[in-house]
Amino acid sequence: MLYSAQHMNISKNDLGFLLPGVGLFLVGILTQSLGHGAATARLAGEVVRWAGIAGLAVYGVRRRSLTPWIFIAMVAGAEIGFDAPVFAGSLRVFSDIFLRMIKTIVAPLILATLVTGIAGHGDLKGVGRIGVKSLIYFEVLTTLALVIGLVAINISKAGVGLSLPAAAGAAEAIQKVAPLHWDDFLLHIFPENIAKSIAEGQILQVAVFGVFFGIALACLSEEKRGPVLRLCESLSEVMFKFTNVVMYFAPIGVGAAMAFTVGHLGLGVLVNLGKLLLTLYAALIAFAVLVMLPVALIAGVPVRRFLRAVAEPATIAFATAASEAALPRAMESMEALGVPRRILAFVIPAGYSFNLDGSTLYLALASIFVAQAAGIHMSWGEQLLMMGTLILTSKGVAGVPRATLVVLLATAATFRLPTEPIFVILGIDALMDMGRTMVNVVGNCLASVVVARWEGEFGVEPISEVVLEGMAD
User: Fold this and answer.
1) d(CA 7, CA 309)
2) Beta strands in 65-146 (DSSP E)
3) How far apart are CA 365 and CA 158, in angstroms?
4) What is the C-alpha to C-alpha distance for residues 126 and 148, in angstroms, rounded to an integer?
């Protein structure tokens, strides 16, 4: 794609600002760390790091693209959170504004694109075929994610020897969580009021309504179907345009989210529970290299173009720890890459409940961590039984608020594990959530490309001008 080449074409003059900026930022970190907390070293480190950020800002101005600015905003936000944590806490309002604007896009975008994709082509057998292929793909990938999480925690043994008292605030949070049962999740999939589902941002409920509405519309005559179909087509174009406008605020929202996270938790938390964090991130990287990359190569996915296309939504997901924040841009990026809108409209919303690879990997890792921290030895047979349980229970992760915690607690109760070690995980959950959310988004984007290749429809449909316009910004 031309837009991909334009985004990645970095001239030598641009590198003249990028490399010194990165270098100065790293020198600033070393200056402060070698100063052992001395006031002079701290001040010198801050000055050098901000000089590096200024160099990165010049690079961003020269590039005139949103993607570099989002990365730069993440770095600047982390620096603000570290240097002025109190001030950083007040910046959360800007990240909340960005998230609210994005959430207004998600439901109408999914509804309009799903209805258009199903009713516009009238191929109901094709929709069913895409659904079956998607669910098979989701099940295989999430099972592999569970296996990698299980192996990673058994190698690192991050929970061994760790036993901390429960915090009162965390105890109150856990007590408020209701148990999650499979029938509750199944019932939760189906909307009782579409307006309520849209207002609450229940993506899967909106998608289910969209599927049935699209099927019903496809069964009507052209005379009756035409006006509604044209309305949905126009609505989807408007929502993509809306996404383009809101994305101009993305660097501010992402930077504010990063500033609040670092200012609220502090960088010290990385040291306190670094082993657990490193285990999770190493497992996520292993999943990307050992599972996602081979799947992409086998399916014939253009890996370099895919990585360029997914960079922006992945960055947004990492900084905000909210999959919804990245969804509109992810759909736009994948359509610009060549995935037909009707496939996107089904695969990505369904993936938000059935293909959360990062979350399922985290659940496997966290469950064994709880047992290790409690000093309970689990045989491989018991661990595999736990993984089998998680294969079923993890499907509700996106359907219910705080569902990751709910599933973790339900697993602990099922296998008679203590809940105290879960308080330890809650202390750094925000940092862990950033990584697993990014993998969730990348995994769903990859799923859409794989299914499109599987259907033989990748890159065959013309791309909307509104989408291309958004990618060119």
Assistant:
1) 9
2) none
3) 10
4) 33
User: Is the separation of the CB atoms in 1 and 302 below 8 Å?
Assistant: no
Report the C-alpha gap between 406 and 166 in whole angstroms. Answer: 17
In b/e form, how buried is each residue of 333-363, taking b as 16+ CB within 10 angstroms? Answer: bbbbbbbbbbbbbbbbbbbbbbbbbbbbbbb
Whether residue 82 contacts residue 32, with contact meaning beta carbons closer than 8 Å, is answered with no
Q: What is the DSSP secondary-structure string of 427-465?
A: HTHHHHHHHHHHHHHHHHHHHHHHHHHHTT-TT-SPPPH
Spatial contact of 455 and 130, defined as CB atoms under 8 Å apart:
yes
Residue 458, Cβ neighbours under 10 Å: how many? Answer: 22
Give this prediction's pTM. Answer: 0.67
H helix runs in 338-462, sequence order: 341-354, 357-373, 380-393, 403-414, 420-427, 429-454
* Alpha-carbon separation of residue 61 from 12, 17, 68 (angstroms): 15, 10, 9
Contacts of 67 (CB under 8 A, 6+ apart): 7, 311, 312, 315
Q: Domain 123-182+227-248+266-473 adopts which CATH fold?
A: Proton glutamate symport protein (1.10.3860)
> What's the pLDDT at 443?
94
Q: Dump pLDDT digits (tens) for 112-151.
A: 877 887 776 556 677 778 878 888 898 899 899 999 999 9
Cβ neighbors of 204 (< 8 A, separation 6 or more) are 188, 189, 349, 350, 352, 353, 398, 399
Domain boundaries, the chain: 123-182+227-248+266-473
Q: What is the pLDDT of residues 283-341, one digit of tens each?
A: 999 999 999 999 999 999 999 999 999 998 998 888 877 777 788 888 889 998 999 88
